User: Which sequence fits this backbone?
């Protein structure tokens, strides 16, 4: 399942997209501790598989939560994306 | 806003019972309850088939709204809570339904419910709810393969439509047909924010636009907004629309025009899709639990 966690408003679309297929098979889930703003949580998807998702409390403020990892210049790889061994995470902005 | 106490935003609550079914002959009765931000629905299924539903406006208390929705089903059918083997709660208030055996996200429940209502050919579901909008891709079994939800902005939601109904003093059920009763399609009002759209609608009324033209401009804005949302994950036929705004023909026709895809029709009120999916999950879970318990 491709899960789009986030929102869109007049300023753009701010979604973290997680492919829960490879995510469900990942035991360590290094993306969770890799996020300096604790955006990710592990929860059961509707079909009973534990997968990584965006914390509900963060979902509507993702743009601000992720801002520190997205400087305007010399942007390093995003910690969550770099940490995911399955390439299951991407950001839409 | 109201005229002589009339609230134009008030949509009709309702219930339905399949006259060809008798719950006394059913092996398993299950229930799904969807407590949304604006409406709450309860659906009863007999052996995994739709039997009855009831829709009420959501109040300040999720448990009370859930009870009111379920009570309507019980009163119409003669069922009692003891007859229901398993109940699944969904929607915003799903964790606050005291009589639910399990809570499941509305994304999964809408997928399952739309699969039942629209058939296994349905691949893309647009749910235009009271205060959010969801786009869901499902497989032939109704299992979600891709989803996107936006609940940060009221534009493109039922609440936005309620605001316009009250502003224009037009009953909400009439907005759709009246939006199509125009000579020429107007440009959309601001599709960014329902507050700005309201201001813009007032400005256009003062500028000489008819109410129908303003309604058309608002329906178009809503259609453009949700079509953008759909565009993010794409539309795969068959296409199915659920939620309260699926009853607004003015929005639905415009979405179909923008996407170039017709929406599949349903004989049943698609506002119950979430609760129906929950009742179907309840049936599956009950059978699974019974099987797991052994003979």
Assistant:
């Amino acid at each position: 399942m491709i899960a789009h966690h986030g929102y869109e408003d007049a300023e753009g679309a701010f979604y973290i997209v997680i492919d829960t297929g490879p995510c469900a098979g990942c035991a360590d889930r290094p993306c969770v501790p890799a996020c300096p703003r604790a955006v990710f949580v592990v929860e059961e998807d509707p079909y009973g598989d534990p997968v990584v998702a965006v914390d509900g409390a963060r979902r509507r403020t993702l743009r601000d939560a992720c801002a520190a990892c997205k400087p305007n210049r010399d942007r390093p790889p995003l910690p969550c994306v770099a940490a995911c061994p399955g390439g299951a995470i991407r950001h839409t902005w | 806003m109201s005229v002589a106490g009339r609230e134009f935003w008030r949509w009709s609550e309702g219930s339905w019972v399949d006259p060809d079914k008798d719950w006394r002959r059913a092996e398993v009765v299950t229930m799904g309850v969807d407590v949304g931000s604006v409406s709450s629905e309860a659906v009863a299924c007999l052996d995994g088939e739709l039997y009855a539903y009831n829709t009420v406006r959501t109040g300040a208390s999720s448990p009370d709204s859930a009870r009111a929705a379920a009570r309507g089903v019980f009163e119409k059918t003669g069922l009692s809570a003891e007859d229901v083997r398993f109940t699944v709660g969904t929607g915003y208030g799903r964790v606050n339904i005291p009589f639910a055996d399990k809570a499941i996200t509305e994304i999964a429940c809408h997928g399952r419910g739309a699969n039942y209502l629209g058939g296994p050919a349905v691949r893309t579901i647009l749910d235009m709810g009271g205060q959010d909008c969801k786009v869901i891709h499902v497989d032939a079994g109704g299992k979600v393969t891709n989803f996107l939800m936006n609940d940060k902005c009221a534009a493109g939601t039922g609440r936005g439509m309620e605001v316009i109904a009250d502003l224009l003093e037009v009953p909400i059920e009439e907005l759709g047909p009246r939006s199509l009763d125009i000579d020429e399609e107007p440009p959309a009002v601001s599709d960014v924010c329902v507050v700005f759209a309201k201001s813009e609608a007032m400005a256009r009324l003062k500028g000489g636009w008819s109410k129908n033209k303003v309604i058309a401009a608002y329906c178009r804005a809503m259609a453009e907004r949700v079509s953008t949302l759909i565009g993010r994950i794409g539309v795969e036929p068959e296409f199915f629309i659920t939620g309260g705004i699926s009853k607004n023909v003015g929005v639905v026709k415009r979405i179909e025009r923008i996407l170039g895809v017709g929406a599949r029709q349903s004989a049943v009120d698609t506002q119950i899709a979430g609760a129906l999916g929950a009742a179907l999950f309840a049936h599956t879970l009950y059978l699974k639990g019974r099987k797991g318990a052994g003979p």
Observations:
- Chain B has two domains: 14-116+271-293, 122-263.
- The longest helix of chain B spans residues 211-233.
- The interface with chain A takes residues 104-105, 107-108, 137, 143-153, 192-193, 229, 232-233 of chain B (CB under 8 Å).
- Chain B has a mean pLDDT of 91.
